[in-house]
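Is magnesium ion placement plausible here? Inputs below.
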Amino acid sequence: MEASLILWTSAQLEAIRQSVNAENFDVVHTDLRDAFHPLQELLEKVHGEVLIVDCSGVQTPQDLLALESFSNDHQDVVIFMLNSAYEVSTLKAAMKVGVREVFASPPNAGDFSASLKRLLLRKKNTPSTDEKHAKVVSFLSCKGGSGATFLATNFAYILAQELGKNTAFIDLDLQCGDAVYYVSQGPGKSSVIDITEQIDRLDATLLSSSMLHITDKFDLLSAPEEPVSSDTINVNQIERLIEVAKKCYDVLVLDLDRIVTPSTLKALNMSDHVFIVMENLLPFVRDAKRVIAKFRAMGYDERKLKLVVNRYERNGTIDIKEIEKAVGIKVSYTISSSFRDVAQAINTGTPLLHVNTENFIVDALRRMAQEFTGTKSVKRSDWFSRLMHS
Ligand SMILES: Nc1ncnc2c1ncn2[C@@H]1O[C@H](COP(=O)(O)OP(=O)(O)O)[C@@H](O)[C@H]1O
Ligand SMILES: [Mg+2]
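Reply from A.M.:
I modeled the complex. Tokens:
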């Protein structure tokens, strides 16, 4: 790929040139900035497929305006911005004007080369990614605290790590989405709202640059850190987001807002499977009935609803038969409580698989993942391969 570099000093230029060359990019144009010439003038000479530009300094707001008009005219050029005041507000403003990634100046070498690598990979994969058509699975919590987010994140992680599926997790719980902390130290990179606010610009590269890359097969788009109203994302935005993501991954896991809005219904309709997570207690049964009634009222295919009874106790107050009779669909999975391992996973932001690969919740999630994708686990758990190779 060909890159143009616009930086402040020749030392900086050489350093960036080296990193870029090391990733097999060709530097086809370079320019040095000074305080007397606005960025706009320099942008006129840019060519190639990637622009790396340093926007540190007092001119950042003017730089962003210049980049906005540049990116409008050159939608196929990927812009990487360096900024010494690497703040969330700058990052958000930059993404809004079409910048794909923002780095500190000087950038962290590992992050910078990883992003360049990703760009190359995306380009190489472009024809095949367009043909991809991810399966979509949604998790919906009957009443808060059913364990939907915990199960969804760990289900997605197992799909990626054990079944080798390129998996994207999108946290659509706009009120209290905290999925990122279940499988990482968090916080996320950009939020789903940052994406939907600029939905017209959304493509595979923007989506990838907004995702937190938790492993090489598992990306996560987090909910906003501060709660926003459940109807902040509209139907067109959610549809476009899912459509773009479907082209980039094998599986898309959605954690939905409990408040069923038109966009939640859209997501449900676009899902191949919907896991409704509940406990075997009366309030959860009431809520499950409410959700399923809404689903039926929309005329959606009921066969994709899978009821999961979490924290299941065999001698609990309501048995499975009663639940099935009350809500009108079969229970697909029961998952018992596992206080110690789950607490350790949650408290450290570690996937349960890594806390205890033999935990029975991991086994249940493996089964769910295999049945969902119709595949057998290709990458067996560590203990199993150790056993086989010892
Ligand atoms: N099977 C389980 N055993 C023990 N704790 C669980 C189990 N499932 C979920 N939890 C815990 O319950 C709490 C609420 O789960 P969460 O996934 O946030 O619920 P929801 O998304 O339905 O509101 C979390 O701390 C989670 O770790
Ligand atoms: Mg949740």
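Short version: Residues 381-390 have pLDDT under 50 and may be disordered.
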